[in-house]
Amino acid sequence: MVLIPGHELMDEAAMSRALIRISHEIVEHNDGLENVAIIGIQKRGVPLAMRLRKLLEEIEGVKVPMGILDITFYRDDLSMLSAHPVVNGTDIPFDVNDKKIILVDDVLFTGRTTRAAIENIFDMGRPANIQLAILIDRGHRQLPFRADYVGKNVPTAITEHIDVEVKEVDGQDRVILLKEEDKD
Fold it and tell me: What is the pLDDT along the chain (184 residues), one digit of tens a residue?
């Protein structure tokens, strides 16, 4: 199977609009930002979380604690990864107990990353709640998770892939739909 380019689902402007909308939804849903903290899942969830944090602080004029979560050792497929998986590091510089945690990632697919992240957070303490903010929800859930905040719902075939690119990692902002093609 070879991935072939599909079409662009979101450009930089569309991604920006989605994050602005999500930030307003977070404020509205939580009646402000009291006791709210953001945690970005490594790798592309982190820059998206940083952008959301900046937007939230601009909207409400308050500082929002932010952390970075690496779920590598919480993955249920860790044994299938390389013998030396890449660990990007976790940095949660606040107490998660009784916080309203906004967990941020780029794509929601099977739900396994979300499960690993929640398990990791609960090992740190007991938050008041965990809300999920996702740029792209592509369906095909294997676990019973749904996002509280979604930038764009993109129904996909199981053979399709979503590629989220962010400036901080990839040099540009865009979301691309890729398709598998058989090559003999």
Answer: 565 667 899 999 999 999 999 999 999 999 999 999 999 999 999 999 999 999 999 999 999 999 999 998 876 554 454 555 556 789 999 999 999 999 999 999 999 999 999 999 999 999 999 999 999 999 999 999 999 999 999 999 999 999 999 999 999 999 999 988 754 4
For residue 44, is it within any domain? yes
Full domain range(s) for residue 18: 2-77+88-181
Q: Return the CATH number at 119.
A: 3.40.50.2020
Instruction: Judge whether 82 lies within some domain.
Output: no
At which residue do the structure tokens 């905040």 appear?
Answer: 149
Q: Looking at the domain assignment, is residue 83 inside a domain?
A: no
Other beta carbons within 10 angstroms of residue 74's beta carbon come to 18
Q: Based on the structure, what is the number of domains in the chain?
A: 1
DSSP 91: B
Task: Find out whether the peptide bond into 63 is cis, omega within 30 degrees of 0.
Answer: no
Query: In this structure, is residue 16 part of a structural domain?
Result: yes
Residue with tokens 């794509």: 107
Phi/psi region, residue 7 (left: phi>0; alpha: psi -120 to 50; beta: rest), is beta
Cβ atoms of 69 and 87 within 8 Å: the answer is no
Q: What is the Cα–Cα distance from 20 to 73, expressed in whole angstroms?
A: 32
